From TrEMBL:
Lineage of the organism: Eukaryota, Metazoa, Spiralia, Lophotrochozoa, Mollusca
Protein name, entry field: BED-type domain-containing protein
Domain of life, source organism: Eukaryota
Keyword list, A-Z: Metal-binding, Zinc, Zinc-finger
One Pfam family recorded for the sequence: zf-BED
Segments forming a coiled coil: none
Length: 85
């Protein structure tokens, strides 16, 4: 089930200049130009499992309160390592 535009702001924080937004889940900084499409793509492509997970061991609040400042590639590597382990 894809996220709707209004859902995007649950996962992103708009920058002060309103031209970009930071992902609360992976810290990625994405261009935001009047459309949340870019933002929703990040969530749908990278975070769909966590976005829809009800796993109490990984609550959304932990991501929101301490966003990781890592690049997308680093984030994916970490995710892969975690999965393999
Ligand atoms: Zn992200």
């Amino acid at each position: 089930m894809p996220l709707t535009h209004s859902d995007a702001w649950q996962y992103f924080t708009r920058s002060s200049d309103k031209k970009s937004a930071t992902c609360n889940l992976c810290g990625a900084n994405l261009t935001y130009m009047g459309s949340t499409s870019n933002l929703l793509n990040d969530v749908n492509n990278k975070h769909q499992s966590s976005a829809f997970s009800n796993d109490p061991q990984s609550p959304m609040s932990s991501f929101v309160s301490t966003p990781k400042k890592v690049s997308a590639s680093e984030s994916e590597r970490i995710t892969c390592t975690t999965v393999k382990d």
